[in-house]
Amino acid sequence: MKTLFDMQPGQKAVVKKVHGEGNLRQRILDMGILRGTELEMIKKAPLGDPIEFKVKGYDLSLRQSEASLVEVEVLK
Amino acid sequence: MTKQDLTIALAGNPNSGKTTLFNQLTGANQYIGNWPGVTVEKKEGKLKGHPQVIIQDLPGIYSLSANSLEERIASEQLSQHSPDAIINIVDGTNLERNLYLTMQILEMGIPTVVAINMADMLSRQGAKLDLDKLSKRLGCPVVGISALKGTHINELIAEALKVAKSGQAPKTLAYKQDFEKLLSDADVVLGSDLRKDQRRYWLSRALENPEPLNLKPDSLDKLNALVKAYEEKEDDDIQSLITFERYALIDQLVEGVRGGKAPDAVSTSDKIDRIVTNRWLALPIFVVVMTLVFGLSVWGAGPGTLLTDWVNDGLFGEIIPPAVETLLSNWGVADWLQSLILDGIIGGVGAVLGFLPQMVVLFLVLAFLEGTGYMARVAFIMDRVFRRFGLSGKSFIPMLVGVGCSVPGIMASRTIEEERDRRMTVTVTSFIPCSAKLPIIALIAGALFGGAWWVAPSAYFLGIAAVIISGVILKKTKPFAGPPAPFVMELPPYRWPALGTVLRSVWERAWSFVRKAGTVILLSSIVIWVLSSLGWENGSFGMVEDIENGLMAKLGGAIAWIFKPLGFGNWRAAVATITGLVAKENVVSTYGVLYGIGEVGEAGEEIWHHIARDFTAVSAYAFLIFNLICVPCFAAIGAIKREMNSARWTWFAIGYQTVLAYVLALIYYQIGTWMTTGTFSVGTVFGILALVGLLYMIFRRQKDYKKPELSVAPAK
């Protein structure tokens, strides 16, 4: 299973499923990361965590632990 | 409130320009407080030109799902005190995600106007939004504004007043048929279990998470059955299905609304960010920015410090006291009252107000950085480091500022949204030695360690260690336990901050410091003055000449035993520690007075030989440890109280700081004495026990606590 955590800078992917539970999951969904959303991995923070993504035209930062909850299909 | 009064709530995403719009709508007529029982700021104001209309600023939120504290407050405010209208500000450069909140707001059925912000930026980019089309589809008025430039604000006000007066609810937006069927089935099943008004909002809340709604077991079972059937049919879970439907609807709504030039694939903001958070450049740039923040506000020769020095030495040194003294003498005011006013009130309050210029400069720099969007990047860069010990990337700023003064440091914690992280940060910020603690370090270093170079760095190391230890210990206690707060954080585009918003933020913070910290300090200054000045001298009670006869000395003697296990159980050390509570600068000068020297230099060179006689190297360092870690000055306690907004949490912070200081000093003194003298005593046993206890608290296994339930006190 590939997740947002496995992506490299510049790679694009489509979300397949958001795992996890409760508030954290709801927050990820609310921010527009849900089935069918296309997003791009921009970069990792200088210390490797968190990770920045571009989704629905804005920039979002997710910790590694959160990024690995989002199952994706990498586009290229 | 009279009957004509209208309340209009202002809702929107963080970074959507909501604060700027609020300032545009209300001008100077604002009241700032806290939402009941929590530390989330509450702002209200009178609408400019319409004093009978109240604008209520809701916390910046992404959703009304009521997961975070801010979301809970906003949703309770809207559902329990239905405002007459809602102004929903939407960032036009980020339509989809902003409209997600709009979907939920419209479900409430409260008259709503959508304000599309950043109209100026869009037209500069050559983009066009068909607002008429959007308005028709949303079923409510849509106004394009620029909060920054103040354009079309009057139109927005007119529309908002119109819908508020007419009570015209927005039209209901239809989801796809299957989902509408689920909603109407749920409607039947829940019947009178769920409130009748704002029905669609409450139905979706019930579907999302019925737990907090206290449904009857019977209805809950039926609801769960409905949900389960739907989930099976759609092969997904209900939370993600609801979110999916809302976003699907948004896609339909914005279809064909955007025209003109498409936004650049790589915006200017993206280009700036490529440099600012670049893998190699991010940390150097960060260091430069922090050095600037520091240099401007707290560095010795920076503008903030120069102003503060002027206020301290000039205004409260050479100008006000002599003037007041002359005035009081001319009026023939009694000596004791003169002393109270001059030494007690002006001395105490002045010492604190002296920090004000420094803080204003600091707040100015911070508000500017907040306005540009750089603060989110600081959290992005530093999160990894701070998460290790239970804090978040946003805890960095308070601690950095705390190197100068804990008061603005503690106040800077306000930018941390998550309440647990904020409380933790407020509790630990004062462990970082502030500039007022430097003379104590210099005193001990000079008197007992021959001015050794390592004493000062060791104090900072001690402070950082105390922060880390506390993070680890507290994270394992019930109030701070639980899964880490989501760090799903938006990195807003870089923007040039609005001058008005920056200045207003500086003013709010500075004024609240003067007002709230001022009352605490005024009282405590009077108390300390009374204790130091009154006592038994020459057989009668009254004003004392010699501080050794004062109540303070008696009190010092009475509590000195407390510090005996720490190696400094003499009354002078006790008194110096107590006066350190008023302001840490007092510790060295109090020592000067107590040894009968009077005025002493900054590091107390004149009393080094006394200190060297009264202390050993071990007990002196224990004294240093206690004074660095224990409760900060009254001004900082005032700031803690303000940021905690709860007596219980304020006492917790004070208690924790005191206990930690005591335990660390105890361990150091007892075990240090054992190591250096080889004498094993009862005290050594306690020292070892304290060390074992501390290590246990640090390394014990994390218990599984149930998720702490955040509750919002019902508003009156």
General description of the model:
The complex is a heterodimer of chains A (76) and B (716). Chain A is an alpha+beta fold. Chain A has a five-stranded antiparallel β-sheet. Chain A has one domain: SH3 type barrels. Chain A starts with 11 loop residues before the first strand and ends with a strand. Helix content of chain A is 17%, strand content 38%. Chain B has 30 helices and twelve strands. Chain B is of the alpha/beta class. In chain B, helix 29 crosses helix 30 (682-699). The two termini of chain B are 14 Å apart. Among the domains of chain B are: 6-166, Rossmann fold (3-Layer(aba) Sandwich), CATH 3.40.50; 177-260, Helix Hairpins, CATH 1.10.287.1770. A seven-stranded mixed β-sheet of chain B has the order 2-3-4-1-5-6-8, with helices on both faces. In chain B, strands 7-9 form a two-stranded antiparallel ribbon. The chains are: A alpha+beta (76), B alpha/beta (716). Chain A binds chain B through residues 17-18, 22-32, 34-37, 43-50, 52, 56-63, 65-66, and chain B through 62-63, 65, 67-68, 93-97, 100, 208-209, 236, 239-240, 243-244, 247, 263, 273, 277-280, 282-283, 376, 380-381, 383-385, 387, 483-484, 486-493, 707. Strand 4 of chain A pairs antiparallel with strand 10 of chain B.
